[in-house]
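We both want to read discrete structure tokens more fluently, so let's practise on a single case. Would you write everything just below, so we can both look at the same thing?
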Amino acid sequence: MKWNLPVRSPRHRAAALARQSVLTKPTGALGALEDVAVWLADIQQVDRPSADSATVIVFASDHPVSTLGVSAYPREVTPMMVVNLAMGGAAASVLARLNKVPLHVVDVGVEPYPEPEPADHSQWTRLERRGLVGNLRDSDAMDTEALSYALQAGADAVDELPEGTDLLILGEMGIGNTTPASALGARLLNCSADEMVGPGTGVSGEALVAKRELVARALERTEDCVEPLDVLRSLGGREIAAIVGAIGRSAERGIGVLVDGFIVSSAALVAVTLDARLRDFLWFGHRSAEPGHARILDALDAVPLVDAGLRLGEGSGALTALPLVRSAVALHNEMATFEQASVPNRDQ
């Protein structure tokens, strides 16, 4: 699977690097903030990047595997949290308001629940359920119809973003979804279940052992599955597939993606395995406390902006990192150069 990505001129990246070298600071003194500004200039194909028009999309889905004891919370929490997100009470909702970022909740496969009344600056969309889903251990996570529909749902959600959107944060909601994320990571990175599976919502002891055994059985069941989309269909989930579709469409539109934690990173791993060019459009917001996230980050050569032990999901980690991205842009655009400030450069 390939996406129709825009042709990028190297001029803007070169210009951003040149500007960083003459701002009133030692070269490299702002660390990753310099790199983020240069990245956005390259993705947006401008000399002065922007992160003012950011948006967060949270994709939500149930997982049949959640009935097998892989989570500390019952699957009924998923629809309740969808309502909470839409109505402004979830962590991602609070952080979106704090950062003045619109939040769009897209239900791609959640069991029925009362229609919420979205809070200001929030949207909620419930899509038709298509195809069949399974519990990973005994049957594939999705059939072909469910996979195709979810991928397209992700692309469609990005298509609805207004022109001028300059940064996209992707989040997810789905009780049990660290299990498919672990299975995806293990298959695509050739790791064992023990190396990828972590506590998720807080399982430990025998429950954690059982979760690892379930993922190991899912990997055994799909041992001949190697093509990335087939891996996603067999071991993923509808919200993860939607995120893959959203990443691809964002790249096609020249929109940079600020990646959240373990679940979204598992989708990013699928997307980049499908088309390595997509890696250029991703910056990683935070490092999750989930052990498998470190392996995915290493595989994608990613150094996240925030490492604060977060493991909530919803896009909350990336939203926490957003002020750093905006700081990076402001510093790049507004700092004086040595010449403007009449300050001697070290080479002078």
